[in-house]
Structures are given as structure tokens and as C-alpha cells.
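Quick one, C-alpha cells below. Sequence please?
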């Protein structure tokens, strides 16, 4: 059986991070959260809107395309997570997403979520769902989790992805029954041509259970995708027709429309400023696919670092599919960005 290309098999779906879409429609139902988010967003361009924090690199699965996990790392100790959450709060961060690896493998997940809320930030998480049960869902309710995203790549597990509907459908039923937080099921196009129709089945199941649903596209190591096939286009359209999701429409107009046709996007990536990726070692990176830039410890990350990264053009931006970074950068589309990124190839001219 043919699967995704070699490049496609080295990274996880963009929306997995997404995973954590703070601009998703769920939030419009909570005026206080939206008010706090918008206040931070509008009071300074240098307030981070979303930090994705790896609380363990270890994962209980081993998806063939993923470059964001291992099978041996210990969980990040709670005293380090406390320091990092407080550091994010002191930077005026609006929302923190606990991610991995698989965050349910860190026994301090609940305490971390509680602390994020105590520090006045929005708390979300990304999971493959395998380790969920009624007790864990009720504990997450108690801790104040506000949104969970589960990515499902196919109907049956295979060597490309073990995130399959068959493995977690029972967990979705539990979530529909017990979760007081928002649950967003994300299906993905591009894992393989043969699995294209699976994404629609995942969307149908989410709708049947009353859960929210988004669709992402698989990116490669550079955060980019290849143009979608005719079959993938058809499924994409049927999924978006199914859900009428604000997130679908936002992603489509922000970046998916051009990329699906093989065209670049001219946008200003604000990674390192509006969006932060915090690795298990507590360093700030632009995103999961650009680890090492800038690679500064979070505890010594300052306003000047945010200002510099806000202004830095990323040479990888034109074909990027990382939806949460597109979303977090959208508010500042009109602001200039001038400093060339020396490590990724200098752009020809500054965007205005
Ligand atoms: S479940 Fe997620 S983190 Fe784990 S291997 Fe699969 S894509 Fe990677
Ligand atoms: S454009 Fe930004 S979000 Fe996308 S891969 Fe590059 S640094 Fe990451």
C-alpha cells in the first residue's frame, strides 16, 4: 500500500498543535475569556497570545510521520513546569496549551492546568486520547481545562498513524458525556491518498457526537504542504460544508486556499512573539518545526526578545501550514516586519 511521501512522513499534522486554536468559535461563547484574550491581544503587540508547552516528549504511540516524540523521555518535573507557567504569565501570555509527546503521560498535567488558570491564562491541551477515561475527564473538569483537541488521522491504525477513529471512538463518547470543556476533533488531509475519505468519516462522527471539528493538512519538516489532489479537494469541501466552522473559514482564508493550490502565502509569521513553542528543556523556539530558533531559555526570555522575533521575517513562511501560528499572527497583519532571518535565507524585500 502506498503512503505519504518521505517528507510528509516526518512531521505531525499542523492542526495538532493546533491544535489549541484560541480563535476557534468555542470561545465566542465565553465573553469573559474572550474579553481577557482581546485585552492582551490589543493592549500590546508584544503580548504572546499562545504558548504551546511540551510537558513531556514521550508518547505512548509511534506514528510514522511524527518528529515530535520519543519513547523514553521522563515527564518534565512539576517544579520546572511551575517556573515556566509563571514565566509565561509574567510575559502577559493569554493562553497556554499543554502538549507533547502525549501530555497525559505527565502525572502533573492536572496541577499544571490548575496553575495556568490560577495565573489568569486560558488552559488547553492536545492529546491522542488513548489514555482518557471517565475519571481523567472529570479530573480535567475540576482543574479548569477549557479546551481539548484530539487529532484523528484515519479509521484504522496503520504504520503511518496510530491515531485512528477505531482506537478512540469510545473515548469520544466519554468526552461527549462527561467533559465540561470544549472538545475539538481534528482530522487531517495528506497523510495518504488512500486515507483521504477517512477524514470525512471522522468529521461525521464528531458531528454525530456533538463535538466540534476542524480539518488540517499535513506538513513536512519545513512546515509546508504539497498541493492537494482532486480527491482531497473534494473531501475538504465536503468537510467544511458539514461543519460551517469559523475555524475552517479562518484557516481557509488565512493560508489553506493558496497552499492547497500550490501557491505561497505572503504573511508575517510572529512566532517567537505572538506565538511561543516551549520545548521540554524550557527553551523558546519559533514552532515545533523550527526548533533552535531562537532557542533561548524561557526564564531569561525578555520583552526585547519578543520585540526582535516579532520583527524577524521567517524564510519558511511562504509555505507554512501551522494554523495556530497563522491565527496568532493574524491581528498584526498590517504591521511592518523588517529584519531578515539570517538562518533561513534572507527575503528579497520587507513586507509592508
Ligand atoms: S500521537 Fe502525536 S505525538 Fe504521539 S507519535 Fe502520534 S503524532 Fe506524534
Ligand atoms: S513560518 Fe513561522 S510557524 Fe511556520 S514553520 Fe516558519 S517559523 Fe514556524
Amino acid at each position: 500500500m502506498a503512503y505519504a511521501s518521505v517528507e510528509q512522513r516526518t512531521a505531525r499534522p499542523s492542526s495538532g498543535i493546533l491544535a489549541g486554536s484560541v480563535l476557534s468559535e468555542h470561545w465566542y461563547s465565553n465573553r469573559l475569556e474572550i474579553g481577557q484574550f482581546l485585552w492582551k491581544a490589543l493592549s500590546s503587540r508584544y503580548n504572546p497570545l499562545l504558548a504551546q508547552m511540551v510537558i513531556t516528549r514521550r508518547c505512548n504511540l509511534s506514528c510514522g510521520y511524527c518528529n515530535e516524540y520519543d519513547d523514553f523521555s521522563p515527564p518534565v518535573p512539576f517544579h520546572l513546569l511551575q517556573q515556566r507557567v509563571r514565566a509565561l504569565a509574567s510575559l502577559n501570555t493569554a493562553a497556554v496549551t499543554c502538549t507533547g509527546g502525549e501530555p497525559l503521560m505527565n502525572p502533573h498535567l492536572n496541577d499544571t492546568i490548575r496553575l495556568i488558570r490560577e495565573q489568569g491564562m486560558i488552559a488547553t491541551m492536545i492529546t491522542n486520547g488513548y489514555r482518557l477515561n471517565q475519571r481523567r475527564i472529570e479530573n480535567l473538569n475540576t482543574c479548569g481545562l477549557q479546551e481539548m483537541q484530539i487529532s484523528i488521522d484515519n479509521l484504522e491504525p496503520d504504520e503511518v498513524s496510530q491515531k485512528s477513529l477505531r482506537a478512540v471512538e469510545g473515548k469520544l463518547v466519554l468526552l461527549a458525556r462527561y467533559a465540561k470543556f470544549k472538545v475539538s476533533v481534528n482530522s487531517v488531509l495528506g497523510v495518504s491518498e488512500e486515507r483521504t475519505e477517512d477524514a470525512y468519516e471522522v468529521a461525521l462522527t464528531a458531528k454525530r457526537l456533538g463535538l466540534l471539528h476542524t480539518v488540517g493538512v499535513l506538513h513536512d519538516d519545513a512546515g509546508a504542504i504539497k498541493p492537494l489532489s482532486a480527491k482531497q479537494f473534494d473531501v475538504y469541501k465536503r468537510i467544511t460544508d458539514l461543519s460551517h466552522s469559523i475555524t475552517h473559514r479562518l484557516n481557509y482564508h488565512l493560508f489553506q486556499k493558496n497552499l492547497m493550490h500550490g501557491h505561497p502565502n505572503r504573511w508575517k509569521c510572529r512566532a517567537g512573539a505572538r506565538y511561543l513553542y516551549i520545548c521540554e528543556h524550557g527553551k523558546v523556539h519559533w514552532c515545533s518545526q523550527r526548533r533552535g530558533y531562537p532557542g533561548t531559555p524561557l526564564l531569561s526570555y525578555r520583552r526585547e526578545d519578543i520585540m526582535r522575533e516579532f520583527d524577524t521575517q521567517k524564510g519558511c513562511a511562504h509555505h507554512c501550514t501551522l494554523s495556530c501560528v497563522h491565527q496568532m499572527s493574524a491581528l498584526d497583519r498590517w504591521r511592518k516586519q523588517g529584519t531578515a532571518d539570517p538562518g533561513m535565507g534572507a527575503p528579497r524585500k520587507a513586507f509592508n
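Confidence is low (pLDDT under 50) at residues 1-11, 13-23, 345-352. The pocket of iron/sulfur cluster (ligand 1) is lined by residues 12, 59, 61-63, 66, 68-69, 100-102, 128, 163 (CB under 6 Å).
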